[in-house]
Amino acid sequence: MLGLRFDKLSGSALRSVGSRGRFDKLSESAEVVLVRTTQSMAVALDHLGAVEPAFAAVLDRHGAPEPRCSDPGATTLLRTIVGQQVSVAAARSMWAELENAYGSPPDLEAVLRASDDELRLAGLSRQKAGYARSLAGLVLSGELDLGSLPADDEQAIALLTRIKGIGRWSAEIYLLFAEGRADVWPAGDLAVQIEIGRLMGLEAKPSEKQLRTIAEPWRPHRGAAAVLAWHSYNSIGTAL
Predict the structure, then answer these.
(1) Which of 48, 76, 107, 182 is the least crowded, having the fewest Cβ atoms under 10 Å away?
(2) Is the Cβ–Cβ distance between 103 and 110 less than 8 Å?
(3) All domains in the chain, ordered by first residue
(4) For residue range 29-42, what is the model confidence (pLDDT) as tens digits?
(5) Cβ partners under 8 Å of residue 95, min gap 6
């Protein structure tokens, strides 16, 4: 169920943040506003509530969402691959098997050398084994430097989607929560589409293209708008 993707991430690769950290310092030095901390999220939500009455109503009704973050780097992307199209419980079990076989965090060099059969013993399907080796190969060869992705979001997404198994949505979620990029807008997310359509009073769920147009006035805080949409969606228990 596409609308539960955010829940899956928050249960595994994401964690709540309640204190200041290195990304607050980045926010101060680079003059950007992130979605990883209580302080930076409050700034973004204040802006969104001021420019969009529907968001102000969500904040009044449900309160502010907690900031979320995941660790930048290959381990988070590998967890994303492992968790695709399985339940939270299954993803945790598979990750535990992978760590048991290849270390915590998994050794990318060992993963790259492993055969499909070896990775299957560690819980990965043949398809996910290929995805894991794609990630390991790009990172180890230096073709993908996760420590210095381009500042331009679209360029960063283009690089991340070179990893087999990492599509645009997964790349956007990585940039939003692992790098704290404030204006990443996952317009293809079904839950975001449903909830923004409901909040805006639209007759039908907006398409990805329509949602990108709708969200233009929310720059440079579209990442926080997505978090707020998920927060509202989960709070009211919308059924797909």
Answers:
(1) 107
(2) yes
(3) 2-69+183-236 (1.10.1670.40), 74-146 (1.10.340.30)
(4) 334 456 778 888 99
(5) 12, 79, 82, 83, 123
